[in-house]
């Protein structure tokens, strides 16, 4: 299972990278805005800065255009920026066309804003590299986000689609564990969801006891 961090915050990306388990980064226009990154040149520079931190990892960069020509123009520019860039395309009609176009040209894509199995099937048919079902946002509206991951896993396995399931809008550690059990290829979430995996009170209590016993015998 690949671990991506879902942020445009360079410090958090560095921290996750330092842990040694980071495989990539996902961003979106809201995450860029949260970090105060505005203006095309600054946004492009920020993507390069992210790529430089995550050595060899995939970095999703989202197009802003919603028409086919605009998405192609922006996506090609983003892909040119750095070899680690994956072009993030929304699940809309022209987005599906753009996914197919990019796939034919060998440009890697991440189909975002996916909320149904049908959308995920379409993204795979169009040749998306990754599909991003937003599980937290489904949970927010009383719909089981993890069930969507299971449905997509079953469909992709039925036909051997190569599109990777990137479980997105992950909010906490249990989302990560459940996605791993279902067989999501990738999870993207906040640093807290990754760091939550390492915590267990019995680990802390056990370590404290080991160290106390060592000190008793060794001064
Ligand atoms: O990866 C998608 C993500 O950025 C959306 O997360 O928490 O805003 O639903 P959230």
Question: Can you walk through the features of this model?
Answer:
It is a single chain. This protein is an alpha/beta fold and about 220 residues long. It has 11 helices and 8 strands. The protein has helices at about 10-20, 30-35, 40-55, 70-80, 95-105, 115-125, 135-140, 145-160, 175-180, 190-195, 200-219; strands at about 1-5, 25, 60, 85-90, 110-115, 130-135, 165, 185-190. The chain has an 8-stranded parallel beta barrel with strand order 1-2-3-4-5-6-7-8, surrounded by 7 helices. Strand 3, helix 4 and strand 4 (about 85-90) form a beta-alpha-beta unit. Helix 6 runs parallel beside helix 8 (about 145-160) and helix 8 (about 145-160) packs parallel to helix 9 (about 175-180). The longest helix has 18 residues, at about 200-219. The chain is globular and about 70 Å long. The model has no long low-confidence stretch (mean pLDDT about 95). The structure holds SN-glycerol-3-phosphate. SN-glycerol-3-phosphate binds next to helix 7.
Indicate the mean pLDDT: 97
Helix-residue proportion: 40-55%
Which band does the percent of strand residues land in? 15-25%
Cα distance, first to last residue?
43 Å
* Basic shape: globular
Q: Low-confidence spans: pLDDT under 50, at least 5 residues?
A: none
What are the bound molecules?
SN-glycerol-3-phosphate
The biggest sheet, with number of strands, parallel, antiparallel or mixed sense and barrel status, is:
8 strands, parallel, barrel
Report the strand count: 8
Enumerate how many helices there are, as a single number. 11
| N-to-C order of helices and strands | EHEHHEHEHEHEHHEHEHH
């Amino acid at each position: 299972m690949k671990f991506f961090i879902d942020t445009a915050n360079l410090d958090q990306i560095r921290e996750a990278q330092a842990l040694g388990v980071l495989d990539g980064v996902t961003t979106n226009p809201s995450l860029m805005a949260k970090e105060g990154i505005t203006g095309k040149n600054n946004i492009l520079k920020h993507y390069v800065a992210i790529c430089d931190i995550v050595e060899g990892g995939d970095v999703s960069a989202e197009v802003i255009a919603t028409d086919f020509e605009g998405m192609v123009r922006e996506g090609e520019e983003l892909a040119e920026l750095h070899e680690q860039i994956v072009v993030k395309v929304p699940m809309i009609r022209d987005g599906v066309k753009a996914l197919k176009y990019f796939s034919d040209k060998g440009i890697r894509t991440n189909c975002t804003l996916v909320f149904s199995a049908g959308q995920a099937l379409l993204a795979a048919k169009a040749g998306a590299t990754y599909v991003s079902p937003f599980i937290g946002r489904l949970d927010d509206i009383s719909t089981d986000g993890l069930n969507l991951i299971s449905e997509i896993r079953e469909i992709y396995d039925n036909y051997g689609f190569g599109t990777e399931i990137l479980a997105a809008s992950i909010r906490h550690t249990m989302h990560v564990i459940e996605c791993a059990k279902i067989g999501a290829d990738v999870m993207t979430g906040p640093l807290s969801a990754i760091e939550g995996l390492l915590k267990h009170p019995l680990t802390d209590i056990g370590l404290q006891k080991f160290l106390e016993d060592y000190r008793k015998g060794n001064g």
